[in-house]
Amino acid sequence: AKAHGRDRSVMFDEEMRAEATRLLDLEADLRRAILNDAFEPHFQPIVRLADGAVVGHEALLRWNHELHGPLPPGEFIGVGEDSGLIEQVDWLMYRRVFDWMSRHGDGYVSINVSPRHFHAETFAERLLRMLDDAGADPRRLRIEITEVALLEDAPRILRMLNVLRNRGVLALLDDFGTGFSALSYLHRFPIQALKIDQSFVAGLGGEMHAESLALVRAILALAGTLGIDAIGEGVETREQRDILRQLGCEFGQGYLYGRPTPERPVGDA
Ligand code: C2E
Ligand code: CA
Ligand code: CA
Ligand code: CA
Predict the structure, then answer these.
(1) What is the ipTM score, two decimals?
(2) If you placed Cys at 163, which of 58, 70, 124, 131 could pair as Cys (CB 3.0 to 4.6 Å)?
(3) Which of 57, 60, 148, 255 to mutate to test the pocket of ligand 1 (most atoms within 8 A of CB)?
C-alpha cells in the first residue's frame, strides 16, 4: 500500500509538471501570437425572435493558431486573464472588429469586454479613439460586460459607461443570471439589454424545463420592469425559440440562427 501511495504521488507530481509546462507553452505561444496579430473575429447573428430578422452580430474571438487552427477562447482565455495578456489580445481583436464595421452594412456589433479593462482609467477614451481612427460609427457598437465588472468599482465603471453612452455605445449585460444578480445595482447603470445565459435557455424543453422556465420568466419580468431589452443566448431548437417568444423575449442568438463565422457580410454590404 505504501509503494502504491508513492507511485500515485509521483504520478501526481508529473501530471502537475506537465500541466504547468503546457500552460507556460500556451503563454509563450500567446505572446508570439500577439506579435503576429494572429487573432480574428468571428461573427454570430443576433435576431429578432418574432421574424428572425438580423439586428446585429456578436464578435467572438478566435486565435488562428499555427498548429491547432482557430482556437475558441475557452482554450486560452484563462491563461490570458491570469497573465494579463487578454487586454492586448482584446485590443488587437477590437481593431479588427472596428475595421470590419467600417466596411460592412448595418446592424450593431457587440464586443466582449473582460472586467480587467475597467482597471484602466482610460479604457472608454481609448475605445472611442480606436473607433474614430477606424472610421466606425460608435452608435453601432455595443459592449458586453458581466456582472462581475459592475461590482468591482461602481463609480468608475459608471463614469466609463456614461462616457461611452454619450457617444452612442450601449452596454449589454452578458451571461445574466449566473453572477450575483444584485438587483440593487441594475437600475444604477446604463444597461440596454440583458443576455439571458445559455444555461437557462438550454434547459427549456429539456429535463430542467420547469426550473429553467421559472428562471427565464423571472429574468424577463425584471428586464420588463426596468425597461431593458432581453436577448436569449444559445438558442438551438425551434422549441426553445417558441418558448422564449411566448415569454416575451424579443431577441435571440444561437446555432438555430447561425454559428460564429469569419467575415460574415451584413445586409447590403
Ligand atoms: P459568451 O460571451 O457567453 O459567448 C457565447 C458563447 O456561446 C460563444 O462561445 C458562442 O460561440 C457560443 N454559442 C453561441 N450560440 C450557441 C449555441 O446555440 N449553443 C452553444 N452551445 N453555444 C453557443 P465562444 O465563441 O467559444 O466564446 C466563449 C467565451 O469567451 C464568450 O462567452 C466570452 O465570455 C469569451 N470571449 C469571446 N470573445 C471574446 C473577446 O473578444 N474578448 C474577451 N475578453 N472574451 C471573449
Ligand atoms: Ca458575450
Ligand atoms: Ca454570454
Ligand atoms: Ca460566457
Answers:
(1) 0.98
(2) 124
(3) 60
Handedness of CA 185, 190, 194, 197 (dihedral sign): negative
CA dihedral 206, 208, 211, 214 (to 10 degrees): -10
Enumerate residues lining ligand 1, CB below 6 A: 44, 60-61, 72-74, 77, 86, 90, 93, 112, 114, 144, 174-175, 198, 234-236, 254-255, 260
The cell for 40 is: 480574428
- pLDDT of residue 1 exceeding 50, the answer is no
Distance of alpha carbon 65 from alpha carbon 258, whole angstroms: 23
Enter the pTM of the model.
Answer: 0.91
CA of 112 to the centre of ligand 2 (A): 5
> Which ligand minimizes its atom distance to the CA of 175?
3
- Whole-angstrom CA distances from 108 to 36, 46, 76, 104, 139 are 28, 9, 27, 11, 8
Quote the radius of gyration of the chain (alpha carbons, Å): 20
Q: Which three cell numbers stand for residue 162?
A: 456614461
